[in-house]
Amino acid sequence: MNSSAPVDLLEGLATTRSIRRYTDDPVEVSDLRSILWHAGRAPSGSNRQPFRFLVLRDGAAAREAKSLLGEAFRAGWNAKREADGYRPSRFADSMQRYVDRFERIPVVILVCLDRYRAPNPMEGASVYPACQNLLLAARAHGYGGALTMWHLGVEDELRRLLVIPEHVGLSACITLGVPEGRHGPLRRKPLGEVVFDDRWGEPAAWAEGPDGSAR
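Below the sequence we write its predicted structure tokens.
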């Protein structure tokens, strides 16, 4: 197990951030097994458990897939940086390093949806809880992760390379590794800005953070 102090569930929920900077250290197989086991405990519609985890580590197909993904992620970040006008910053620097070193990320997981019916707007409810479980389990084992969607830029190529059936949806791409940084307090909107009481736009006087603050 990657060395880390035990994490209380609520502390984990309050402090698990997207981690995009990783060391070259591997993710231990025993830890990866535990992470995916806990991801698989997530709820899903009618308990069908349609989520599937395609793990890319260091096999021949995985290396080729990571190369494809690296190209897609660099293109995605370049487009986003230009469109949104990102200037040099801690976030922008972190993102640039993330995409530049993508092929070196120890574990990349394509979270898939094994469909039993035509695609529909509600199907994400049966796969994204598993994604959150996965990220929290990784945090508990001392790892960091980030959920992304830039894999869609090379979806057709990934399907051919990894022999993914047409009926299977590629719902998310999660990267995992030993953090160079750390998890910690998060910057989020105050609870009062995201919670309404009784009707839309009605402030909830009781909506405050655990410490009694507006956050």
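Residues 62 and 152 are 17 Å apart (CA to CA).
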